[in-house]
Design brief:
361 residues; alpha+beta; Translation, Eukaryotic Peptide Chain Release Factor Subunit 1, Chain A; Nucleotidyltransferase, domain 5; 3 domains; 4-stranded antiparallel beta sheet; 13 strands; 22% strand
């Protein structure tokens, strides 16, 4: 998780804790590439309609919230590339003493959602769902005897399905002629490739993966890709073909490890790089790293932290404590998932660690 995502998710939790007395909380979702003039004109119409609200306090709060959003939109020249979301409303705990606040968020992915809502709660579910729409890669490791399918989403590798073929070894047993055995074996290989292709279509094409990585210990992976059984759209999404040792679930992890060139921007590679840099420093005993809450907090207080690593496995209170302490010291922060072996290492070190500017005293 990146720091921007952490802050947005924290904001969502806060927004969800707010409950209006009336329908005085305004939510506006603006799609990417959508005209802000249309949104402004729509909100001006809603402002006129709000004049008819019977309750005086509710009427005033809704109109004030709409005016704030309209005035903010006047200052924005164009819609951000992913669209934008605005929340505005009365958050006061005291009736008759309004406290109108506003928040503006750019979605983490390109959004086509358009919403206007006045309610007792802010509408956050569409925004939350966008954090699960990152680049998902399909993974396939295979030889002529078996195939394992998986997915890579962020730092999470998940095994999806395992197939075993009926293809025998390369040498016949008994009195069967070599030519007949070879023909039968080739037929079974083709049947297996068809089954692999059909399974890949169901798991990857219909789920809309952004890329496909294929691996295996021998020529079977290449023969499969050249066989023509994999639908054209999926074949176009093949981003890498790697020689690996295993075709079971461990092969999925090996395939990802050997695909760093393809996955340079994928979260699992970024996290691995940071954690391995930390572990190398610890192994060298160079005093350029710290781990555990007490040691890391001391280095933060001494303004000696270059990069702070926080495990997503920590509770929210601890994550916030270290994140905002680092923010006050202008320290770069990276959140590390617990879904990988590297992430588990960080969590087992106490859930927080730091790479230092200078050797620790």
């Amino acid at each position: 998780m990146e720091s921007e995502e952490f802050e947005t998710l924290n904001l969502i939790k806060y927004l969800e804790s707010i409950k209006g007395r009336h329908t005085e909380l305004v939510t506006v979702y603006v799609p990417a590439d959508f005209s802000l003039d249309i949104i402004r004109n729509h909100l001006l119409e809603e402002k006129s309609t709000a004049e008819n609200i019977k309750d005086r306090n509710n009427r005033k709060n809704v109109i004030d919230a709409l005016e704030r959003i309209i005035n903010r939109l006047k200052l924005i020249k164009r819609t951000p590339k992913n669209g934008m979301i605005m929340f505005c409303g009365n958050v006061s705990e005291h009736e008759g003493e309004p406290d109108i606040r506003e928040w503006e968020v750019e979605p983490p992915v390109k959004s086509d959602i358009r919403i206007y809502r006045c309610d007792q709660r802010f509408i956050t579910d569409p925004l939350k769902s966008m954090f699960n729409q990152g680049n998902v890669y399909g993974l396939l490791v295979m030889d002529n005897r078996e195939a394992t399918f998986g997915s890579l989403n962020g730092a999470s590798i998940v095994a999806l399905k395992h197939l075993k073929s009926l293809v025998p070894g390369k040498f016949s047993k008994g009195g069967q002629s070599a030519m007949r055995f070879s023909r039968e074996r080739e037929g079974l290989i083709k049947d297996f490739y068809k089954e692999v292709a059909e399974t890949a279509k169901g798991l990857f094409f219909e789920k809309g993966v952004s890329g496909l990585l294929v691996g295996g210990p021998g020529p079977a992976k290449d023969n499969f890709l050249e066989s023509g059984y994999l639908i054209t759209d999926l074949k176009k999404r093949v981003k890498g073909v790697k020689s690996i040792s295993y075709t079971d679930e461990s092969g999925l992890h090996e395939l990802v490890d050997k695909s760093k060139d393809v996955l340079a921007d994928q979260r699992i590679i970024v996290e691995k790089m940071y954690v391995q840099k930390l572990m190398l420093s610890i192994a060298r005993n160079d005093n350029l790293s710290a781990y555990g809450e007490a040691q890391v907090m001391r280095e933060l207080q001494n303004q000696n932290v270059e990069l702070l690593l926080i495990s997503e496995g920590l509770n929210d209170e601890k994550k916030n404590e270290f994140y905002y302490k680092a923010g006050g010291a202008a320290v770069k922060v990276e959140f590390i998932s617990t879904m990988s072996s590297d992430g588990e290492q960080l969590f087992n070190l106490g859930g927080v660690a730091a790479l230092l500017k200078r050797p620790s005293k």
